[in-house]
Design brief:
Layout: H1 16-32, E1 39-41, H2 49-64, E2 69-72, E3 92-97, E4 115-118, E5 122-125, E6 133-136, H3 139-156, H4 162-170, E7 173-175, E8 187-189
Parallel strand pairs: 1-2, 2-3, 3-4
Antiparallel strand pairs: 5-6, 7-8
Helix pairs in contact: 1-2, 3-4
Length: 194
């Protein structure tokens, strides 16, 4: 069983104060999270240089605790490596595809991407009630699929590192089927129990 902590930070426009709130969320998981655990980040920001070293230090320490971090690539139709946290080189970065296995029009791309997953017209939980569902699109939806499989991997191999989890997830991808990868590794995640 993977532990879910009630820590949610949705940051649409990253400004300095919001970065500190984000760091507090990561530190909370670092200090209070029980393994096996997975962190799913749905953020996309240009990080001020002064905070870059600090953010990498936090991520490095979370990874040392063997808590994998999966991040959405962002929805700017741009190189994911221009944005945090994809630019850290330390998190699994997920781009979005549509129902025809084409990169979603707004999904970020580039060599920082680790996987693509479905991210267009995804039915998910709404916030209006315990039973509400909504249909939405974006790399956050795609990252959630990969985070789910990362959680399953962690239940089977609790001591696995970020690299080992990513390698195992790689077994559940189909290569060279995504159209318009624009310099990204061409690996499409598919749902399967590890």
């Amino acid at each position: 069983m993977v532990n879910l902590l009630p820590v949610i930070y949705l940051i649409a426009a990253m400004i300095l104060s919001n970065m500190f709130v984000f760091y507090q969320g990561l530190l909370f998981v670092f200090n209070n999270g029980k393994t096996p655990a997975v962190i799913n980040l749905s953020i996309n920001s240009v990080t001020p240089d002064i905070l870059d070293a600090f953010s990498k230090l936090i991520i490095r320490n979370v990874l040392k605790k063997r808590i994998p971090i999966v991040s959405s690539a962002g929805n700017n139709n741009d190189d994911a490596g221009n944005y945090y946290p994809a630019d850290s080189g330390m998190v699994m970065v997920v781009g979005a595809t549509d129902e025809n296995d084409k990169r979603a029009p707004d999904s970020n791309f580039g060599p920082s991407i680790d996987f693509f997953a479905p991210g267009v017209n995804i039915e998910t939980a709404g916030i209006g009630s315990d039973t509400e569902t909504v249909t939405t699109s974006g790399t956050s939806m795609a990252a959630a699929f990969v985070s789910g499989l990362a959680g399953l991997v962690k239940t089977q191999v609790p001591g696995s590192t970020q690299e080992e989890v990513a390698h195992r997830i790689g077994y559940y991808t189909t290569k060279d089927v995504v159209d318009d990868v624009n310099g990204s590794p061409n690996r499409l995640f598919y749902a399967c129990h590890p």
